[in-house]
Amino acid sequence: MQLTKQHIADANGNLKGHQADYYYLSQKLIDQGVDVDALVQKVADFQVAIPSWALGAGGTRFGRFSFHGEPGNLEQKIGDVGILHALTQTAGAVSLHIPWDTPTDYAAVKQIADQNGIVFDAINSNTFQDQPGTKHSYKHGSLANSDEAIRAQAVAHNNEVVRIGEKLGSKTLTIWLADGTSFPGQRSFQKALSQTEKSCKEIYGELPQDWSLLIEYKPYEPNFYSTVIMDWGTSFMLANACGDRAYTLVDLGHHLPNSNIEQVVATLMSKGKLGGFHFNDSKYGDDDLTVGSIKPYALFLIFNELVYGMANNPQNPDLAWMIDASHNIKDPLEDLLQSLEAIQEAYAKALLIDQKALEAAQLNHDVVKCQEILQGAYRTDVRPLLQKARLNGGGALNPIEAYRSLKVREGLIGERGKHTVATGL
Ligand code: LRH
Ligand code: MN
Question: What is the CATH superfamily name and number for domain 48-341?
């Protein structure tokens, strides 16, 4: 199933309402000195990678409720990313997870990606599950394992993942380690960390010169007492130990309650070590919920630091923008459409912050004024700008409405039946 520009134009119907909203808002913003065209172009240029492991129904240990018409192979997954991109014009990339998405026909996969305007972003290794036929188990860890042979197997897997990524045009390897302990005394923290550093350096040393390494941290799960790469500081330390092309990846769900993630972002950007994001939202743990569904203001504050950093931290690389979610009850594609909208909205609102006025108010210690400047931007309904960015690219005025009026899920079920199951979480 592929959505054409005509499909979407038909679904958009009459644009009068949008044009009136856009005219009214852009006049107001122009009066405030905002370059509206430049802002809309920035939003249009902002491309988010879709996780290949989140195109089917997710689940928990308490159960998984299948979703009909799921992609049954990598080609169909890229087709689904193509549908998201056709509707939103902001999902022009996919992030693969190996071995869940090891290509069998590279030419076919690349052809479908080209047809849908999709590029291959960061590729993820997986040493948190045992694969049939592998000699050693990762039950007690992988890159941090006390057993040299098991660490070597995990390093070899990461190198193999890079080989796969090279064939697809990816330039970034993401490492997330489940390695850790569930009981005090189970393992030496120091030995686990030094083994991990040694393993990461080996992998980094094998990376092609034009590749980067993203090190993702997480405080707990699946281990429930300690995780070797538990927080931004540990990831930052390991990235520095590896070298200039190693960075920290921030997954929004990988923080203890009430963590100040925007300060983590500012700190990493100031050191040129923020490499990318896994966007999602959460109420309690690593819930992998729809972006902006629980804490939209926190996401806005994070984008405020990103906008500042992108303007003032030339030492920081271009960031890898990715979603990492799990869909337990929503249609996976509708969930991702909502996440993409929430990310664009937070970015557009952050671009409206008058950074000069904010700096002046900060220097005057005018705390009230600082908040007024931030919340003035946050309270602006930027949806007409997002619509404009999509329409400029031939996308949907309202992606969810178009997805439903074009009966996309029904079409996918018609093509794939009700029992295909997508690989992934
Ligand atoms: C770990 C994580 C990591 C992926 C996995 C699918 O919680 O966020 O990014 O490898 O989810
Ligand atoms: Mn993640």
Answer: Divalent-metal-dependent TIM barrel enzymes (3.20.20.150)
